[in-house]
Amino acid sequence: MRKSPAVRQKIGFGALALATLLVIIPVIAIVVLIISRGFGALSWEFLFSMPRDGMRAGGIFPAIVGTLYLVFISLLFALPIGVMAAIYLSEYARDNALTRTINLAIINLAGVSSVVFGLFGLSLFVVFLKFGVSIISGALTLGIMTLPVIITTTREALRAVPQSYREVSFSLGASRWQTVRHAVLPRALSGILTGAILSIGRVAGETAPILFTVAAFYLPNLPQGLSDQAMALPYHLYVITTQIPGIPESYRYGTALVLIGFVLVMNVIATVIRSKAGKKK
Amino acid sequence: MTAPAAAEKVKMSVRDLAVSYGRTPALKSLNLDIATGEILSIIGPSNSGKTSFLRSLNRMNELNPQARTSGTVRLDGRDIVREMPAEDLRKRVGMIFAMPVPLPLSIRDNVTYGPRMAGIREAATLDALVEESLRAAYLWDEVKDRLDLPGPKLSGGQQQRLCIARSLALKPDVILYDEPCSGLDPISTAKVEESMLELRKSHTLVLVTNNTKQAARVGTRTAFFLMGEMVEIGPTDRIFTGPEDKRTEDYIVGRFG
Question: Could you say which residues from 113 to 142 on chain A have a Cβ atom under 8 Å away from some Cβ of chain B?
């Protein structure tokens, strides 16, 4: 029996709405779980003091500081290089076998599992370049891991700028760089910042790349410089969850909540910058 | 077929110009002189090579990696490929596109885009250019009180005149129009044509158009292109009243096209 178009339309919409619901439910469940179990742990002491009693008491301040260091230093390194590489690939490079291979490599790089990046960082930065297990090794490893994300999103943002803007700019006697700088980049800025936002989340949350390159189980002091080891939120979460018996449950969920909140705050800041940049034109 | 513009001063000369995209030829061995101060209209059906020809005159074809161009084009005697940087050429040979593309900038910044890229910074110079160019494009009276409005907020016809003003701000010698009125209403079209007749006094104009009536209205000379070749060129009156080639006549009276 054939159903009427109206009925079939209802079934179709129902299926789509159900799929959407299935996507949202786990996200909401995770957030609710973490907030309900972790909120009780939040206090000034938890956020801004050193851990005590074999990390069973005190705070997670060094892990927050460590993650802040890693996010900023890795982006300081990856954002300019990634954006410049994307500009070159999208605006300057000719479409030939070499650039197609490079593009393929970048896409594949984005799919490499993060522990492989950790191993790479260990052999290149820690051992070969003798940076040791340090913030700089970890930040560079995270930076390399996030490069494909930045390059891909930047390139998509550049491609979304209508070709006619470039034509108009060239027809008015602008050079290629002037065209990129004045006609293309301002229009791609918000897309580029979206890439940066995605990277912040990835850099702050990854555990495997920092495992061999920077992360410390426990440090009595805050890191003094780039060549020091550091604690970091995701690794700290792993440590207190698996390695330390008898730790209050709220400490674990509190740490997870801080990690999520940290990424959220960074995203909000980046989004505000993005909308400001968007309005300026 | 060569068409020297006899007594008048030659602005641009085109010799053996051929353009192809990959293996597809778009324009086959064109010879043509463009005289100073004329409005040369180019008519013909689509795929006749009109736009390829136009885009060779300011080297915009080079932006298409598929395009291959041979032959020589000279501007005031200088080879535009071998003796001029593309940026300098495009400052002297402006282009108006079929679809008006105002950059997402204010009206003022749209008009001053070219001069600013050329290194002009003084506010007074730029302001003078804005007024002068917008007046020449017949847009000044409509926008003089809102120069900070974003260009894309203007109506279609105003946008096209903004694009004309933007080209004029570079004080070009030659202006190329690529079907400039194809998306415009009759009143906007009339204003664009009016500005063309005025600009003719100080510029050389080349107009590619699908609208044969427009060619008849503004062109001093008209050329008919077909399948990558120039079939006929001559004074507009003669082309429209007594074409020498049967194909020209067929196209003009509307038997095909």
Answer: none
A56 Cβ under 8 Å from any chain B Cβ: no
Q: Are strands A57-58 and B10-21 parallel, antiparallel or unpaired?
A: unpaired
Alpha-carbon gap: A102 to the closest alpha carbon of chain B (Å): 19
Tell me the pLDDT tens digit for each residue of B155-165.
Answer: 989 999 999 99
Given an 8 Å threshold on Cβ–Cβ distance, is B94 in contact with A187? no
Q: Which residues of B touch A162 (CB under 8 A)?
A: 101
For B208-247, what is each residue's pLDDT tens digit? 998 889 999 999 999 999 999 999 999 999 999 988 999 9
pLDDT confidence tier of residue A1, bands split at 50, 70 and 90:
low
Go through the domains of chain B in sequence order and give each one's CATH number.
10-253 (3.40.50.300)
**Partner residue facing B101 (CB), from A165, A186, A281:** A165
Contact across the interface for B170 and A175, Cβ inside 8 Å: no
Please say whether the dihedral angle defined by the alpha carbons of residues B133, B138, B144 and B150, taken in this order, is positive or negative: negative
- Partner-chain contact A173 B170, CB within 8 Å: yes
Listing DSSP states for chain A in one string gives -PPPHHHHHHHHHHHHHHHHHHHHHHHHHHHHHHHHHHGGG-SHHHHHS-EETTTTEE--HHHHHHHHHHHHHHHHHHHHHHHHHHHIIIIIS-SSHHHHHHHHHHHHHHHS-HHHHHHHHIIIIIIIS---SSHHHHHHHHHHHHHHHHHHHHHHHHHTS-HHHHHHHHHTT--HHHIIIIIIHHHHHHHHHHHHHHHHHHHHH--HHHHTTTB-S--SS---STTS-B--HHHHHHHHHHT-TT--HHHHHHHHHHHHHHHHHHHHHHHHHHHHHHHH-
Q: Are B40 and B207 in contact (CB under 8 A)?
A: yes
Chain B segment 55-94 residues within 8 A of A by beta carbon are 58, 60, 63, 65, 86-88, 90-91, 94
Contact state of B118 with A169 under an 8 Å Cβ cutoff: no
Q: Rounded to whole angstroms, how far apart are CA atoms B197 and A8?
A: 61
Does the beta-carbon distance from B95 to A171 stay under 8 Å?
Answer: yes
Nearest-5° angle of CA A48, CA A28, CA A146?
65
CA angle A192, A74, A205 (to 5 degrees): 90
Subunit contact A178:B99, Cβ cutoff 8 A: no
Residue B168 corresponds to which amino acid? Answer: L
Q: A217-250: b or e for each residue (b if 16 or more CB lie within 10 Å)?
A: eebeeebeeeebbbbbbbbbbbbbeeebeebeeb
Q: How confident is the model over A92-144, as pLDDT tens digits? A: 988 889 999 999 999 898 889 999 999 999 999 999 999 988 999 999 999 99
